[in-house]
Amino acid sequence: MGNKIPILHRGQNIWFHCSSYGEYEGIAPLLAQYHDQSECTTILSFFSPSGYEATFQLPIADCICYAPLDREKQVNSFIHSIQPSVLIVSQNEYWPHMISVCQEQNIPVFFIGTYVREKHWWLSSMFRSITEPLRQHADIILQDEASFQLLQEAGYANLNVMGNPRYIQASRTRDYPRQYPLIESVLLSRPCIVWGSTLDSDHQLIAAALAHLSAYTMILVPHEIDEEKLRLVETYLPTAIRYSKLSENHTESKIIIMDTMGDLKYLYQYADIAYVGGGFEKGTHSVIEPAAFIIPVLSGPNIEKFIDARKLHSIGVLRLVHSADELVSQIEAGIPGLSENIEDELRTHFDENTMDIQEIIDKIDQTLDSQGPLAGLS
After folding, report:
1. Looking at 33-37, 158-162, 277-281, 310-314, which range is the least confident one?
2. Helix, coil or strand: residue 366
3. What is the mean pLDDT of the chain?
């Protein structure tokens, strides 16, 4: 994409919807391109507080809000208030009334960066009546060919494979990282481990390995940062200090617990090795962000649902652990960094999977043009 600013459709209200902060990361590059154009009004909605609370004060959209409950009356009222010309949904966030009301009001709907696996509920004939608006009305832009084949066989129309926009966002974060002077004062010359988006199962694993990790500075970013969860983390890591309490007087602190939101993607810049949480439960969280910094990444073993995790594992970037002993041995093996061959494969993987934002913008604008200048307004 380079530094070229795309030409966007003029004078439209563009509604972006995400489930939570993770899904926002997948749609942020497209949102940024539209928001940079003064002729477009951008509305960003979330269902989860993790997305809204991390972004509502940022200058990333003209309006940031919670989406309505998926009931016809509430959705109709919301759409009437924001008058969208198009709805752009990140990944797999599907609510039937949201889509069907848009369909009734002639508002085009795009799903961006979507993926499915076998046995996904979108594919089941049991839910056909629920997914019918999605099957016939939405343009679904997919991450991979496997998703295309599964959805096509299940009767979905308007499918395109264009890659994963999260690779664009991760590369931008790497190239323009936010700086953290207090954390930098703690790092000194020790190697650093960043534990990202961790759950209780991950904290138990880290605690079991802690005695063997005294040579490392560690930054831990829990997936949830409410007070109860933070106190539980502190029971596992009693010598840790919260980031909000960090000062220049704590340069000997070796474990920092982040109690803020929206920082993890930038903190990977300090890591010699990263661990991504979730792999001992429903599935590992995003491994794309740490991989963008060309470092080894660790996680628990449950990666099957995520094509990016599986690919990064196959080329040797992502390494799986099943126990505290494996965790320690993998950290020690990974601290020297990735081999030159693996670095080359990783860069190729990013190049091949980076979505062309201009291609998506062109597709959206063509749809808006076919709807006429007042598409979606009533």
Report:
1. 33-37
2. helix
3. 90
Question: Do 50 and 21 touch, CB atoms closer than 8 A?
Answer: yes
DSSP string, 16-60: EEESSHHHHHHHHHHHHHHHTSTT-EEEEEESSHHHHHHHTTSTT
Report the DSSP pairing between strands 273-276 and 139-142.
Answer: unpaired
Question: CA 347, CA 339: separation in Å to the nearest integer?
Answer: 12
Q: Could you give the CA distance from residue 196 to residue 292 in angstroms, rounded to a whole number?
A: 14
**208-222 pLDDT, tens per residue?**
999 999 999 999 999
The owner of tokens 């599935």 is: 283
CA distance 209 to 274: 15
**What's the pLDDT score for residue 3?**
33
Q: How confident is the model at residue 355 (pLDDT cuts 50, 70, 90)?
A: confident
* Mean pLDDT of the region 122-141: 91
Closest CA to 280 of 323, 316, 309: 323
Please tell me the distance from the alpha carbon of residue 248 to that of residue 154, in angstroms, as a whole number.
58
- Kindly report the CA angle at 347 between 342 and 350, in degrees rounded to 5? 125
- Compute the average pLDDT of residues 280-299: 96
| Joined tokens for residue 45 | 């909605």
Q: Does domain 13-165+355-370 have CATH number 3.40.50.11720?
A: yes
pTM higher than 0.70: yes
**How many residues are present in the chain?**
378
List, in sequence order, the alpha helices (H) in 195-258.
200-209, 227-236
Q: Are 311 and 349 in contact, with CB atoms under 8 Å apart?
A: yes
Domain 173-353 has CATH 3.40.50.2000: yes
Same fold for the domain at 13-165+355-370 and the one at 173-353? Answer: yes
> In this model, does residue 5 exceed pLDDT 70?
no
Question: Can you tell me the distance from the alpha carbon of 44 to that of 373, in angstroms, rounded to the nearest whole number?
Answer: 22
Contact 289, 312 (CB under 8 A): no
Could you identify the residue written with the tokens 């965790």? 327
Every domain of the chain and the residues it spans? 13-165+355-370, 173-353
| Res 375 pLDDT > 60 | no
